[in-house]
Each structure stands twice: as structure tokens, then as C-alpha cells.
Amino acid sequence: MTTTTARDFDNYRYAELPARTRERFAPAAVSSTPRGEAVRTADGRELVLRTIEPGDVNAIQRCFKRLSPQDVRRRFMHAMSELPMAMAQRLCRIDPEVEAAFVLIDENVQPAELRGVGRIFVDIPSNTAEFSVLVELEWTRIGLGAMLMQRLVDECRRRGVGELWGYVLMENRPMLDLCKELGFVAKMVPGEASLAQISLKL
Ligand SMILES: CC(C)(COP(=O)(O)OP(=O)(O)OC[C@H]1O[C@@H](n2cnc3c(N)ncnc32)[C@H](O)[C@@H]1OP(=O)(O)O)[C@@H](O)C(=O)NCCC(=O)NCCS
Hints:
By secondary structure, the chain is of the alpha+beta class. It is about 25% helix and about 35% strand. The protein is built from five helices and ten strands, in the order ββββαααβββαβαββ. α1 crosses α3. The longest helix has 16 residues, at about 145-160. It is globular, with a radius of gyration of 16 Å. Coenzyme A binds near residues 132, 141, 166, 177 and 181.
């Protein structure tokens, strides 16, 4: 199994957001720049897509504060009124051996704000990875969730992971629809009527 480091993603490249159809998942045209990838949305907003860094702690905490209670529940599966510092630090300081996390950073504001994040945790014995994804409400419906998910799929393939999976609340229609578009299949979780397990064989 190959491993990845934050340095692997330490190159900005320019990428147009894919079209809002299945074709969105075709490889995007990219060109090299200093760190990560510059992403331009269909409505002209620009973000930087890069791997998460320890220095993103304050931005991730500010992002959490902008989330609705529904978004928090959909992402973390339970209510949380704040993102504790220790948890924020843990989320930003990943173990590259078994984790990858990509963030969408808005550098057009000061301080730069985190608008979306997608991450995987790899379980080496089963060769599977669990994902989570989040896009801030005002930045939804412009392809960013699909872009982050596609990035996670690509990262799993790069590592030779056999399956990408995650829990999604049954009421979370946006996420279920997004995953269906990407080819994931959903199944009920025994004893958890409100939860679906969705997965994609790679
Ligand atoms: C679910 C979530 C990631 C979607 O992000 P997004 O950036 O809006 O997704 P996209 O714009 O890429 O949409 C991709 C597809 O998903 C589906 N979708 C997204 N939002 C939807 C909505 N509100 N209603 C119905 N379908 C939706 C659609 O099929 C959409 O394709 P279309 O826009 O061509 O119709 C985002 O709403 C979010 O972060 N929610 C809170 C956290 C969460 O639920 N995380 C998932 C559990 S880990």
C-alpha cells in the first residue's frame, strides 16, 4: 500500500468546476500553480482546493459556527453547539498514513474562510475507507460536494482502497442524491431506521 503526505498535494493547480451533469465527474482540465488547485464555480466564485493543514484550526471553527443545526447533525450524526478546540485540532492534523482531507478555501475574504471539506479514514485491515463531506450552505448546489466526493474517490483509488463508504441520515436527501449520481449504493443499517450506509466498490 502506498502512503500519502500533505506534501503530495502541496501544489496549486487551476481547475474549472465540471458541468452539472454526470459529465461533471470527467477529469477536469488543470494547470500548475504554487499550492493546490484553484477552482472557479459556474457563478464566478473562486476557491482553492488543497489538503487540510494544522493551521486551518481557526478557519474550521469559524466554518462550524456558520453551519445550521441541520447541517451539523447531518455531518456529525448528532447535535453539537460548538466544535471543541481539541476536536478542531484533531480534524486538521491528519495522519497521512490512514487519512486524507481536502478543503475548499475562500481566499477572497480576510481571514480566508473554509467553505467545504471532504475526508476519508482508511481501515487498513479491511482495505476500506469511511468518508465525510461538508459544504457550507451558501456554497451548495454549485458542484462542490460532487467535486469533493470525486476527489475522495480518486484518493481511494490512488491508495488501492477497495471500497469507500459512509453513514448518511435517511432524511439527508441532498447527500443521498449526490451519492446516487456518483454510483454509490445504499443499504439500511440494522437496528438504525434513520440511517443508511452507502458504499462504492472501487
Ligand atoms: C450534501 C452536501 C455535501 C451537498 O453539497 P453540494 O455542494 O450542494 O453538492 P453539489 O452541488 O455537488 O450537488 C450534487 C448533486 O447532489 C444532489 N443535491 C445536492 N444538494 C441537493 C438538494 N438540496 N436537494 C436535492 N438534491 C441535492 C443533486 O443531485 C446535485 O446535482 P444537481 O445540482 O445537478 O441537481 C451539502 O449539502 C452538505 O454539506 N450538507 C451538510 C452535511 C452533510 O449532509 N454531509 C453528508 C454526510 S457526511
